[in-house]
């Protein structure tokens, strides 16, 4: 068991080194030697865990998505649902250096999903899981009377993911217009419009006031 734990921890460290190297140099220019330098180890050690650059990159993507899942899982599950969903969506925004670095790497990885079936499947799987979770959350908001029963939770989940993706890209590429405060405010305004006393709310459910 300890040996397995050490192996997993070393793979995680290599993945972290990969993300730092890609954020610094870009995907195309990153080599095993760059990852080894970031790790403070030998190229041979990196290759001990990953036989090819493709293997290393796929593991890096898995690690990246796992981080995002862990942040969402750590969100406090308290009502109202609106606030819970906002907190979950906020974890996707690059509001600190770590998440900005991850976004830089994600943008480097994304084109690979067009031609690499395994990378594409990783992206599809992670995106489906995110959308499924948001769909469940929006359906829960309906059950609590926070959203109209006629609303399509999955359609709104898709729209929310598309909005957040656009917001994150602008936060990185157009930072003079989308600083941290603006990005967070834009997300909050999105939720305000989505949850703003629309027609069709179930009158049998009490409404919650915005914090």
UniProtKB/TrEMBL annotation:
Protein name: AcrR family transcriptional regulator
GO molecular function: DNA-binding transcription factor activity; transcription cis-regulatory region binding
Superkingdom classification of source: Bacteria
Pfam families with a match to the protein in the record: TetR_C_6, TetR_N
Keywords: DNA-binding, Repressor, Transcription, Transcription regulation
DNA-binding region(s) from the entry: 31-50
SUPFAM superfamilies assigned to the protein according to its UniProt record, in alphabetical order: Homeodomain-like, Tetracyclin repressor-like, C-terminal domain
Protein's organism: Nocardiopsis metallicus
